[in-house]
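Morning. Coffee machine broken again, so started the prediction first thing and wrote up yesterday's gels while waiting. Chain of 748 residues, entered below exactly as on the submission form.
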Amino acid sequence: MIKKGLVLATLILCFLIPEEVFFLQADSSQILLMDYPIKIRTPLAFWRTSLGRIPEAEKPSYDDSTWDLIHPPYRWKGTSVYCWFRTWITIPTGIEGKAVYLKISLDSEGQIFINGKPAGFFYWDRKVLLTPSAKAGDRFLIAVKGRSETVFGMLIDAYLLYRDAGPHRLQSNLDLIHQHARETILYTNGSWKFLQEDKDIFREPDLDDSEWNTVYLNHRWEGTFSNAWYRKKIIIPAKIHRYTTKNAQISFDFKVDDDCQIFVNGKFSGFFRRYGSVILTENARPGEEFRIAVRLINRQSYGSFIESGLKLGQVYHSLNTLASLLEDTVSMLDRILQGSRHPLFAPSLELSDQTILAANQMHPPLILKCLLKTDDLSRKISGFFATHPLIIKGPYLQNINQDEATILWETNIPTNAVLSLWSKTSPIRTIHGIEPATLHKISINGLKAGRTYSYQIQSGKTICPVFTLKTAPREDKPFRFAVLGDTANGEDAFERNTEEILRHKPDFTVHVGDMVSNGRYEEWGREFFFPARHLLRNIPVYTVAGNHEYNSAVSGNRVLWYERFFQNPGNPYWYSFNYGNSHFIFLDSNKEDPADISPGSEQYRWLINDLESDKSRKAKWRFVFIHHPLYSEGWAEEYYDGEELLRKNLVPLLEKYYISMIFQGHTHDFEFGQWPPGTGPCYVITGGGGSPLDDTKYREWPQIQVQHFAYHFCLLDVKGNRLLFRAIDSHGHVFHRFEITNREKQDP
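Came back before lunch.
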């Protein structure tokens, strides 16, 4: 009977799916980039470490046998404290002839030595070539001298990258371009005038600041919710490193903790959060003077003017454009050469230092022609991908309800888009995209509640395997959802978490923010879409924007890549929907100044209206998702305990409107508490999605009763009036569970 059933099911499926689909699936020319595992990197798991300034610690002959043995992520305490790390690398068999790179991430700054020789200073992360052609058995000593910037430093991760000849030669071009990009910036971190007071007159260009303190950036000062001023006279030099400044666009770039206002020659130039850039002149004249005044606004603990510099805007942006293009090409070729049998050609194009310099000094757009000129490489790449586009993100599911689903994916070149969808009981439906594009979005409606559908996407001659989606159930049916957060720069742990989530088969997943490191385009594929690929193509994910996404915010405090990639129901930043018998509310704690959702703001008014709406009042359960926590115990000592203004403005609403649970991220741990005990909202921090974990308990909040440092996610089962909550680590172990019964709610 079973065999007969399987045969019948197969025959039915054959009639439902066009013959063309089967043909394309068998076509060996298809390339689904997101399916190719990255087998090109090896983590460096063990290091010897010791604190302090240690003479000759970079030399291979140095004896480190008494040093501590650690593995990343590893944190050391203290401000401006040096910490050494050493490890030996032996080139394994199987990668002969490949180029080998070291990739290392460090908080905050460091210097690398290879076999005792300096390999460069870096801030945050660095990639260094060990050998252009590996030989099995070759040994390298990696020595790293790190320096902490705040109350601790951290060796985040380190690994080896292996590249074939083609990607390596493009990587060499990329490294050269990054070098030139760094040389378009002249740092102005030297002496500044500083005063920890706040008067509007401090912006005036002719103010006598001779009696102010003289400080150097990265200067720190203490004072929660207080302001300080920095002032400096800046003179446009004749050159920024090798580049002439005459007639060039010059900008003033900076990084602060937390916020600032910039005044140039007494005129207000804008409000900025953490990062910013102000154009000083579009037609620079060497010797021209500018009076810079910075009102720095500190929101928590210490304030700091971290760094500043003059930047050749047009040259820098041209180099960045080329770097982004090359970065995508290198990554693409890496994965293809790992997972495809197509003979993909060793690139013949080399960019010389002189070519880049000349192109930029003559006319910045000419640099793009260095890459795009017609040669063997570009002809082969262009010709191949014109008919065989790469699916570089997705497919992924968005905004699924009882009768509608949205499916998105991205290709490396503009193509047409086709979506086919069917179920066991309904014939196939095919929808074509309106016009060729790179980001494809197709919505399909008229679906049935609580039903599983199969779908398949196609772009050009590239077609995906068959995946599934499930529509939302009726209001009286049980459902399951997962929650995690803070996955930026933690791809490996993030992927383990998503695999474990998939094993539990939730109806949807929520991410509470900090999906990528800085919100840049090149990070989204590497840090989010690839590690979560298996989850995203089968389970819809709803998102909250974190502060790391906002590192790429533009005018109007908009995060354009976040808006582009996610199709949230309603406002991109705050929205709500009902699922089953529950109401889900998503908030953005980055929109206000400072982190706040204040009475009278647009978001606050929307929240009140939403809480008063019938869809909220009639729901048995109400859940809120936000990035910044109201209460926190898990960040570094004497540093962070949550957001005071969020506590002030949101806690009364959570209690008044009987919010069941509020999920938060931002701190990289798990925290749980119910306040008031037994009756109030449950406060959950789930910041262990993949980013390097915190490990410090700061203060005691009665609102927090459980704390755990582990990579994890939360899983919730909603069954009528019962809710089962489980916190599960990335290895599948339940380390906290909590069950509650829904209490009858009174209208507030």
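The chain has a mean pLDDT of 82. Going to sketch it on the whiteboard this afternoon.
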